């Protein structure tokens, strides 16, 4: 590490410094935790310690008038330790990305497990007992839900639904197969190897099957952690990931079934039959609970327009409630969470403000990544904590059987599935699906839950489970990336959906539905269309407030895209670079059919005479008049009637403005590089912008464009500048009363901002000098834009939202 | 039944037709399609626009008009012919349907590319109503307007702005550098391919009904 930091210069040194800091901190935290854990495990000493502390305090009291410094760790111990763990996890996550090239070679999950091992080792090294960190309660009620909710809420619904059949077969049949294959063969091996190890012979068939059902489920946490790094194509990702999510129902049922059986000791046919029914109850019940809560959440979000601040909370609370409610009845909590997240999302997103949406996104990502980190660290710690019972035969056989079962299962099932699929799964796909079947912390926690009375072999099981987890996470997790490269498996396209693709996706949907109708064949396009129609007609009306319920998907997509571009533009540093979506010089004027009212005279005459100037002024004024009218109607629809769009229109305006600045900056550059600018170009440009209003898709673009337009030119062509400001002033004057109108609509919160931006619009506040520090202005403007966009202060949010309500 | 005889008489011809356009399909499926064709046409040999417009399920389809037009478009008949027909026979019906067949799993890369091109060409022809090889902004606007036509009171302005944004995107991805005075006339077929390369058209634009391996039994039951 030191040599590397040296080679990396100053930043490297800083990085090294940071790493050292992390390490020091790690040590410190470990020691505190160790001390704390010793306290935990020897309550008497802890008690006496605290006594001592209080004694000390009282002694101080008698000695001095007031205890200036007091120590009482016990009071804060639990929250303090929790924070320490979380901090440790976050710093680790941070640290890995600072070490160059490390994250390319080793997946994060492996590193985190290693860190966990280290921490556990240090704790043990200090002679303390390692705390049972990966407690099942903690895992299932605190650590797991955020990850699953994140997965469910951001589940790519279309690919998921399109491949639902395949996913279900893998999840249900595949997991069943794995469980029985591993369990059954393991029992056989245990019986055969009787004389060599007598412990194994005591393991019954039921125990083996239970173990098989625990170990056979692919783990969503591990899969997510590894698959996010290898950027595999969408189909494979959704297949493996979907399987890992949906096999939860099977695991839950099998687990409870076998646990019950091994507790009682007798298996009847009836019980087996009830087990099958229980599977459907668990799976469908979980989904039902999730859907109910999802609908509730969507319905609640309909009314949150007055209190935007707590909007995200509803999403989290309802989902968590869904999870817990499902757990009450031993239904599949994971299925409930997934269903809840997936159902609520489209409606909630339409209802809540954009800022709330961002908040939800970030909170979910934050929670899930911290949870994930903690889970892997805890896995490491728990490994050290033990207790272990290493049995070579059992462990080796388990690992081999897991691999074999997975491969046979995937290949066999794909053979059947492929008969029904339009897109067949190739051999490569099958390999990745089989290889991506990682096991993880869920299996460990389930094993941890086992009752020692019914399962005297619990330690052997736990050790075997940990070995399998380590094997899959380390060996498969580390090699899957090179293998993906080697096999040239199709990668995920990084480009985000373009509007053309969206249009054509929808076009295709309707086209295929139409063709199916003509064929008289009611395939799944037909039913999808029916469902969509039902959704549009009834569900949306109930769950989405206001105008938005009628908004078709395409328009929603369009708005979202606009939004993204706007944000991107602002985030890209005030618009020096164009956003990647439009990385070219092409602008609306390039694609517009030339308007018939093209202002030919201006083009023809290079020099501006007094008359011509008057004419331009007139054209501009009339144009502005019109755009202003349109702008107002536009506002009434998007700003006032739709309070959800709080920041949106604001952003639109800004975005348009930024675009114009962009363009002008570029143009300015060309003017600056060309020694003698063509005399007509600024005029032409202005005229073109003005004429653009006939067809321009954003009326305010023209407005803002004109406003911004004059500045750089005034700056670049100083000799001609005495004309330009005059035009600008005339331009601005009819605008100012309107901008006041606008302000009323924008509300109090924006007033300040709007006034600041409006400086240029208003004649009195704008000096008529020829030389304007326009660039400075722009820079300031951009800064301001950045600030107000990036500042999601809750109070401001409230103000804004409140102001939109009539 | 006369028509069935007629069908049997021509069966080899139909199979030949579909073979010509790589449209491998079982006899059973052709039979199913033929029955449907008969049902639509009211036991006539030809099918007309009105027949298709009478399909009740199609009423809710926002692009119904375009779909029906596509059936009568000569460009979709794999012959280098332009214009539109008044009515089509079963052969032509099959021809149009053949655009929606799934790719064979054993198909080579080349075949896949051809199929993809065919499918894209079908879509392109649906948009390019005047057959000048270019989807102009106006044509694109119509497409988007039609697409949104079912969703109630949508201002045409929104539809337009979406089409404009889409067009802008096409222009900027394909011709990244344009002088302010240049004019992007419209989407050519090459550009059309370019913008839709993200969609796996060869698998997306296919209907299970025409898949010979899988759904034969089911469809047989359904349409008989």
Automatic annotation (TrEMBL), chain A:
<feature type="domain" description="Sodium/hydrogen exchanger regulatory region">
    <location>
        <begin position="581"/>
        <end position="684"/>
    </location>
</feature>
<keyword id="KW-0112">Calmodulin-binding</keyword>
<keyword id="KW-0812">Transmembrane</keyword>
<keyword id="KW-0175">Coiled coil</keyword>
<keyword id="KW-1133">Transmembrane helix</keyword>
<dbReference type="GO" id="GO:0016323">
    <property type="term" value="C:basolateral plasma membrane"/>
</dbReference>
<feature type="transmembrane region" description="Helical">
    <location>
        <begin position="392"/>
        <end position="418"/>
    </location>
</feature>
<keyword id="KW-0472">Membrane</keyword>
<keyword id="KW-0832">Ubl conjugation</keyword>
<dbReference type="GO" id="GO:0015385">
    <property type="term" value="F:sodium:proton antiporter activity"/>
</dbReference>
<dbReference type="GO" id="GO:0051453">
    <property type="term" value="P:regulation of intracellular pH"/>
</dbReference>
<keyword id="KW-0050">Antiport</keyword>
<feature type="compositionally biased region" description="Acidic residues">
    <location>
        <begin position="796"/>
        <end position="806"/>
    </location>
</feature>
<dbReference type="InterPro" id="IPR032103">
    <property type="entry name" value="NHE_CaM-bd"/>
</dbReference>
<dbReference type="InterPro" id="IPR001970">
    <property type="entry name" value="NHE-1-like"/>
</dbReference>
<dbReference type="Pfam" id="PF00999">
    <property type="entry name" value="Na_H_Exchanger"/>
</dbReference>
<keyword id="KW-0406">Ion transport</keyword>
<dbReference type="InterPro" id="IPR006153">
    <property type="entry name" value="Cation/H_exchanger_TM"/>
</dbReference>
<dbReference type="GO" id="GO:0015386">
    <property type="term" value="F:potassium:proton antiporter activity"/>
</dbReference>
<feature type="transmembrane region" description="Helical">
    <location>
        <begin position="364"/>
        <end position="386"/>
    </location>
</feature>
<feature type="region of interest" description="Disordered">
    <location>
        <begin position="747"/>
        <end position="806"/>
    </location>
</feature>
<feature type="transmembrane region" description="Helical">
    <location>
        <begin position="460"/>
        <end position="484"/>
    </location>
</feature>
UniProtKB/TrEMBL annotation, chain B:
<dbReference type="InterPro" id="IPR018247">
    <property type="entry name" value="EF_Hand_1_Ca_BS"/>
</dbReference>
<keyword id="KW-0449">Lipoprotein</keyword>
<comment type="similarity">
    <text>Belongs to the calcineurin regulatory subunit family. CHP subfamily.</text>
</comment>
<keyword id="KW-0963">Cytoplasm</keyword>
<dbReference type="GO" id="GO:0004860">
    <property type="term" value="F:protein kinase inhibitor activity"/>
</dbReference>
<keyword id="KW-0472">Membrane</keyword>
<dbReference type="GO" id="GO:0005737">
    <property type="term" value="C:cytoplasm"/>
</dbReference>
<keyword id="KW-0649">Protein kinase inhibitor</keyword>
<keyword id="KW-0221">Differentiation</keyword>
<dbReference type="Pfam" id="PF13405">
    <property type="entry name" value="EF-hand_6"/>
</dbReference>
<protein>
    <recommendedName>
        <fullName>Calcineurin B homologous protein 3</fullName>
    </recommendedName>
</protein>
<keyword id="KW-0966">Cell projection</keyword>
<dbReference type="InterPro" id="IPR011992">
    <property type="entry name" value="EF-hand-dom_pair"/>
</dbReference>
<dbReference type="GO" id="GO:0030154">
    <property type="term" value="P:cell differentiation"/>
</dbReference>
<dbReference type="GO" id="GO:0032587">
    <property type="term" value="C:ruffle membrane"/>
</dbReference>
<dbReference type="GO" id="GO:0005509">
    <property type="term" value="F:calcium ion binding"/>
</dbReference>
<keyword id="KW-0519">Myristate</keyword>
<keyword id="KW-0479">Metal-binding</keyword>
<keyword id="KW-1003">Cell membrane</keyword>
<dbReference type="InterPro" id="IPR052490">
    <property type="entry name" value="CHP3"/>
</dbReference>
<keyword id="KW-0106">Calcium</keyword>
<feature type="domain" description="EF-hand">
    <location>
        <begin position="115"/>
        <end position="150"/>
    </location>
</feature>
């Amino acid at each position: 590490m030191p040599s590397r930091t040296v080679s990396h210069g100053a930043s490297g040194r800083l990085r090294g410094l940071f790493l050292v800091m992390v390490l020091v901190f790690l040590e410190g935290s470990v020691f505190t935790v160790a001390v704390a854990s010793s306290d935990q495990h020897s309550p008497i000493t802890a008690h006496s310690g605290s006594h001592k502390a209080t004694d000390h305090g009282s002694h101080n009291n008698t000695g001095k008038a007031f205890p200036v410094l007091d120590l009482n760790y016990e009071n804060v111990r639990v929250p303090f330790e929790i924070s320490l763990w979380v901090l440790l996890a976050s710093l680790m996550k941070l640290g890995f990305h600072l070490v160059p090239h490390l994250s390319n070679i080793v997946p994060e999950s492996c590193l985190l497990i290693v860190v966990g091992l280290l921490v556990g080792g240090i704790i043990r090294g200090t002679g303390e007992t390692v705390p049972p960190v990966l407690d099942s309660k903690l895992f299932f009620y605190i650590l797991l839900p955020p990850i699953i909710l994140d997965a469910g809420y951001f589940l790519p619904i279309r690919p998921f639904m399109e491949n639902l059949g395949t996913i279900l077969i893998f999840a249900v049949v595949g997991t069943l197969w794995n469980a029985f294959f591993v369990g059954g063969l393991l029992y056989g091996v245990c019986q055969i190897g009787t004389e060599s190890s007598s412990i194994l012979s005591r393991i019954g068939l039921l125990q083996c099957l239970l173990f098989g059902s625990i170990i056979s489920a692919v783990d969503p946490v591990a899969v997510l952690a590894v698959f996010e790094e290898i950027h595999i194509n969408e189909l494979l990702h959704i297949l493996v990931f979907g399987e890992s999510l949906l096999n939860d129902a099977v695991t839950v049922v099998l687990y409870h079934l076998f646990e019950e059986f091994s507790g009682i000791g007798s298996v009847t046919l009836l019980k087996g039959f009830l087990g099958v029914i229980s599977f459907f109850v668990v799976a469908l019940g979980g989904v039902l609970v999730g859907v109910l809560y999802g609908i509730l959440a969507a319905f609640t979000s309909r009314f949150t327009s007055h209190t935007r601040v707590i909007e995200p909370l509803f999403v989290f609370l309802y989902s968590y409630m869904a999870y817990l409610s499902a757990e009450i009845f031993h239904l599949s909590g994971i299925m409930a969470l997934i269903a809840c997240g997936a159902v609520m999302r489209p409606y909630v997103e339409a209802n809540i403000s954009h800022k709330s949406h961002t908040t939800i996104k970030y909170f979910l990502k934050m929670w899930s990544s911290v949870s994930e980190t903690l889970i892997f660290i805890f896995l490491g710690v728990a490994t050290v904590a033990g207790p272990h019972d290493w049995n070579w035969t059992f462990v080796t056989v388990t690992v081999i059987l897991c691999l074999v079962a997975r491969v046979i299962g995937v290949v066999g099932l794909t053979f059947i599935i492929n008969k029904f699929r339009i897109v067949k799964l190739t051999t490569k796909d099958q390999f990745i699906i089989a290889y991506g079947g990682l096991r993880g912390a869920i299996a460990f926690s389930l094993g941890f839950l086992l009752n020692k009375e019914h399962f005297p072999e619990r330690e052997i099981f736990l050790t075997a489970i940990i070995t399998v987890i380590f094997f899959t996470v380390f060996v498969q997790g580390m090699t899957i990336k090179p293998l993906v490269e080697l096999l040239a498996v199709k990668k995920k396209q990084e480009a985000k959906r373009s509007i053309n693709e969206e249009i054509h996706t929808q076009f295709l949907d309707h086209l295929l539905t139409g063709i199916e109708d003509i064929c008289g064949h009611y395939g799944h396009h037909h039913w999808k269309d029916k469902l969509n129609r039902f959704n549009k007609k009834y569900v949306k009306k109930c769950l989405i407030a206001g105008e938005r319920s009628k908004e078709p998907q395409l328009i929603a997509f369009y708005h979202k895209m606009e939004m993204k571009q706007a944000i991107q533009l602002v985030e890209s540093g005030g618009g020096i670079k164009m956003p990647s979506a439009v990385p070219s010089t092409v602008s609306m004027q390039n694609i517009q059919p030339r308007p018939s009212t093209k202002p030919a005279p201006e083009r023809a005459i290079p020099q501006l005479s007094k008359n011509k100037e008057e004419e331009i002024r007139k054209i501009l004024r009339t144009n502005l008049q019109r755009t202003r009218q349109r702008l107002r109607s536009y506002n009434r629809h998007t700003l006032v009637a739709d309070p959800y769009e709080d920041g949106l229109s604001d952003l639109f305006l800004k975005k348009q403005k930024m675009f114009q600045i962009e363009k002008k900056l570029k143009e300015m550059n060309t003017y600056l590089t060309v020694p003698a600018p063509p005399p007509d170009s600024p005029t032409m440009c202005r005229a073109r912008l003005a004429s653009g209003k006939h067809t321009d898709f954003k009326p305010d673009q023209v407005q803002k464009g004109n406003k911004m337009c004059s500045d750089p030119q005034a700056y670049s062509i100083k000799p001609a500048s005495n004309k330009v400001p005059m035009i600008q002033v005339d331009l601005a004057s009819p605008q100012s009363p309107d901008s006041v109108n606008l302000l009323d609509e924008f509300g109090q919160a924006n007033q300040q901002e709007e006034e600041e931006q409006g400086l240029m619009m208003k004649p009195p506040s704008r000096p008529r000098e020829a030389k304007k520090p326009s660039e400075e202005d722009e820079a300031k403007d951009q800064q301001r834009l950045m600030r107000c966009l990036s500042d999601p202060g809750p109070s401001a949010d409230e103000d804004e939202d409140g102001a939109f309500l009539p | 039944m006369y028509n069935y005889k007629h069908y049997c008489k021509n069966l080899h011809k139909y199979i030949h037709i579909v073979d010509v356009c790589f449209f491998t399909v079982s006899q059973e499926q052709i039979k199913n399609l033929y029955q449907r064709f008969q049902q639509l046409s009211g036991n006539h040999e030809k099918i007309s626009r009105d027949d298709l417009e009478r399909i009740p399920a199609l009423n809710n389809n926002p692009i119904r008009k375009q779909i029906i037009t596509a059936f009568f478009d000569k460009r979709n008949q794999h012959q280098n012919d332009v214009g539109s027909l008044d009515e089509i026979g079963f052969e032509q019906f099959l021809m149009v349907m053949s655009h929606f067949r799934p790719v064979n799993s054993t198909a080579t890369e080349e075949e896949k590319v051809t199929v993809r091109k065919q499918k894209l060409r079908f879509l392109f022809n649906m948009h390019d109503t005047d057959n000048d090889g270019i989807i102009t902004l106006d044509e694109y606007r119509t497409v988007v307007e039609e697409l949104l036509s079912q969703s109630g009171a949508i201002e045409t302005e929104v539809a337009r702005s979406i089409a404009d944004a889409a067009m802008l995107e096409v222009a900027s991805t394909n011709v990244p550098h344009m002088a302010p005075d240049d004019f992007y006339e419209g989407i050519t077929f090459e550009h059309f391919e370019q913008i839709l390369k993200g969609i796996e058209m060869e698998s997306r634009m296919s209907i299970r009904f025409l898949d010979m391996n899988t759904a034969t039994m089911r469809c047989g039951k359904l349409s008989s």
